Amino acid sequence: MTEAAGPEPLMLQNVTAVDGFAYGVIGADIHVLASGAPLYLLANWEHVPAVSPGWLRGMPGRMLNGRRATAPSAGDGELAQLRLWRVCAARLAVRWLYGAGKRGRIPLASRFAAESAAAGWKVISAFHGPDAEPVSPGSQDARAAGSAGLLVIVEHADRWLLANLTWLLKNAFLHQSGTATRVLMAAGTADGWPRVRAILDRYEADTSSQHLPGFERVSGGRSGISAAATENSGAISGFPAPR
Q: Nearest 5°: CA angle at 48, between 46 and 50?
């Protein structure tokens, strides 16, 4: 009679830098240039920290940053489409989420990431090397063992160099047998999608796109997204929005 297998052993990764930034990942590849600069960074997904209302009041356009909760977001119908995509039968599925301007695609991706994490999915953010968001120094754990699946969020996918995006799609952590893997790419347009979809053919991935309509113009000449920012500004400042 054999003993029952114990819990998976913890993995320790020591990351050290001298006069620079050190970065490591557990459970995924790291792809770098000859200079050592990473083509992209992987990080455990995190909620965007709250920002000061006073700082937001200083310039209403700051509330249109897609990663802040004050930015207008797509509705429940769009989120429901992402939920259905997440539970599709494919082992690897990639969706290109696009829309004019910043009409809710980043807030929608953030809502979907938060909901997926609450449902037991391992959620990872992928940032383009030259445009990478600050990532906490040290190690990022990308292992999906024991999770419902792996979800990777790629913001501004249309700004990535195609070569860098190709290397991301080669990363071994996206191709683990038995692990449901979803890659959500948020972009402004669908222009880059045909080339990315062609790359995914070699992996027999399920590919799809989802369009988010842009905000229409409203009375008074302001766009819907501008009006939404004004409404949010009034709510944050405590004063009614101008009419």
A: 135
Domains, the chain: 23-237 (3.40.50)
pLDDT tens string, the chain, 243 residues long: the values are 444 454 555 555 454 445 555 667 788 888 888 777 788 889 898 865 545 555 555 555 545 454 545 444 557 899 999 999 999 999 999 999 998 655 578 889 999 999 999 999 999 999 997 666 656 666 788 899 999 999 999 989 999 999 999 999 999 999 999 999 999 999 999 999 999 999 999 999 999 999 988 644 333 444 444 444 444 444 444 544 444
Q: Which of 187, 189, 186, 183 is nearest to 207 (CA)?
A: 183
Size of the chain in residues: 243
The number of beta carbons lying within 10 Å of the beta carbon of residue 65 is 15
- Give 96's strand partners: 185, 209
